[in-house]
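Annotated sample (chain length 530).
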Amino acid sequence: MSLPKVLVADSISQSGVDELSRDGALDVVVQTNLGAAKLLEIIPEFSALVVRSQTKVTAEILNAGSKLRVVGRAGVGVDNVDVETATRRGIIVLNAPGGNTVSTAEHAFSLLLCVARKIPPAEASVRAGNWDRKNFEGVELYNKTLGVIGMGRIGSELSRRAIAFGMRVVAYDPYLSATRARSLQVELVDELDDLLASADFISLHTPLTAETHHLVDLARLRKTKRGVRIINCARGGLIDETALAAALQDRHVAGAALDVFETEPLPADSPLRSAPNLVLTPHLGASTAEAQESVGIEIAQSIRAALLEGTIRNAVNMPNLDAKTLSIVGPHLRFGEKLGKFLSQIAPKRVDALNINYSGKVNEVDTTAITRSVLKGFLQTAGGSDVNEVNAPAFAESLGLQISESRLSAPGDYTDMLELSAAAEGKTVSVGGAFFGATPRIVSINSRPVEARPHGVVLVLENSDRPGMVGRIGSMLGDHGVNIATMSLSRNQAGGTALTVLNLDTAPGENLLAEIRASEDIRSAQVIEL
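Output written by the structure step:
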């Protein structure tokens, strides 16, 4: 059996390459500076692709990667990866968010000092033979207000350094809790405009999304203090570069420093090149020896974990599953998939809504991965083998399937229970599963208690509750050479409708099913294959 192949298409640290190659479990190929055409030609043979910011992982490349399971970006941003297409194709996109945190925070703080004290133009002036102290008068950081937009890892690290310099830090982040803000010693504001109006310095640390594109535009620049100084070491496109150049020209913005740009390298005709009081660096935030070593190793470890262990770390389109979490939810993943597959075969064709109800101890952990496994199983009939845990939610959305989760803290009869229900055209069907110790069992079908093994062939019958029915069913199966492995019976009332669930050694043929369904005492017969 051939080893999974990994293509390193952009330069990463040798330690990262060594980590990928460790123990010979992966076939690692380092081939950098590939053009789009060459990458498109060779990508079909690879299971994983490692890039930095140079290689553009387009929809065309992702669609050509027939074996591709993982794309790893050795850095934080994934702007050069078509994440939407990767998700639809079931490809995990990983990044390395921790490796360059300190380096980028330090670079942002360096630029903060540069614009405060006009260090780059002063240095250039001295080299040119001048000694012009008056024109390079700066401002202190002490007692000034720093506005931080985005309080993730890097924004938090920058804030710590600013506080150490005696700055007041005001933060805007819709996802930051008040408790976390207090622990970081920053003042949290609810509206971005409040930060803009109060800050002497502004530093951006948010991802680039449709919502954050040109987050700082002409209208918002006009809301800032006159004399504000702006830093961006996050993503190009967060600031409207034309508006910033104009604000620098009219001195509303006293200074700015940019490490990232909408188009990189910075075009020769960019208005930024002629803007005054502006420091430009060529995307150096993560360019330290320590950061490159760290992100190379981090992305290598994440790719190995995904390909060799099934453990997901630092994924941007999948919930993370570290070893500890996996040990808790792991048994539920395969079981959830089986239950989803079971439900899809007893449900009507056009399901409008799917609910997943968790009860018991499983509620103590993040169940997102289990939900994705359920969806994978439920949607495989419609989508085939192309559906996996990564693209299942997107596939469900494309079908108009409404997904919901509910929780019951009380475990009831079982320590953990997972119940799925599907609704369509006024009809609801359901299946429930639980663990007997470490053994999974189907414990309910359409709210009727049963006990069946969740694998192989399962025959589900609704039949009249009459004496001799079990024998008649057994005789019909026996006459066709079909052996019963286990049997479970349930009824709503004596003489009413019974539910008979049989684990079979082999699948019944069409002639046998026709014979079973022809019996006036059999109301329905469904064969479930797991």
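Annotation: The chain has a mean pLDDT of 91.
Annotation: The domain at 5-99+291-309 is CATH 3.40.50.720 (Rossmann fold).
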